[in-house]
Specification:
Elements: E1 3-9, H1 13-23, E2 32-38, H2 41-49, E3 55-59, H3 63-66, E4 70-72, E5 78-80, E6 86-90, E7 100-103, H4 109-117, E8 122-125, H5 131-136, E9 142-145, E10 157-162, H6 163-171, E11 177-185, H7 190-209, H8 211-220, H9 228-238, H10 248-263, H11 281-286
Parallel strand pairs: 1-2, 1-3, 7-8, 7-9
Antiparallel strand pairs: 3-11, 4-11, 5-11, 6-9, 6-10
Amino acid sequence: MLKTISVAHSPDADDIFMYYAIKFGWVSAKDAKFENIAADIETLNQATLKGEYDICAISFALYPFVKDDYALLKTAVSFGEGYGPKLVKRKDKKLKKNFKVALSGEFTTNALLFKIAYPEARITYMNFLDIENAVLEGKVDAGVLIHESILNYNEELEVEKEMWDIWEELSGGDLPLPLGGMCLRRSIPLHNAIDYENCLIKAVDVANKNRKVLATMLLEKGLIRVDAPTLDKYLDLYANDESVNLSETQYKALDKLFELGYKHGFYENLIKAKDFLIPSEYEDLRSK
């Protein structure tokens, strides 16, 4: 009998796109079936803190808090290259130092960068889908938009600051902005963990190589919140060749993110991303 492995991901287009290569049966694990759960990213961050899922999408900024219980996966990653979340406000609004802002969650990457850049701001957390209206209705002075919201927002709003610009200023430039990835429960036996990670790598690769077909299927089934042109543009940003397998540059970016969090007192320990991966070389050693 096949084991059931829970795979939790966010409902935004890039996560759905990468996961559905498995859902549609294009890729499968050797001895397990994947059961998917979709929830907003902060819900997933909180669930990972509680150890609820076997494999879960997370904000990279969360990872140092769960490193002892979850291994960092090398695939299904989202980085910004000259773009990312946006701090927006009404065009007729001038922000004070202690402005009230809506963020999508305490453990999101954008929250970490925001807190470093705006230490006096008053933060409230809400579902990312509610942030735009909260700014428009004056419930908050500003808000950080994420996911597809960065592409289409009300014309009464304007960008106060790109999170990409904050990242560049803090990191020194030349590194992509680490946003989200996936992690796997450490209690899963190593040979299974390697198989599951390889399956996910293959799924992201297959989805990327068959992007047009998969995107059409998702749109026809009503599984995506946006229209075809917006989906295409969004996948260009966050579900591409750079999403399949972490690169050396991406490892450096993750290490810089963790360094910034440690330097500003958000993490107890300074960690390096490569120290927390699944040791996939184990399978090679077993076969020799």
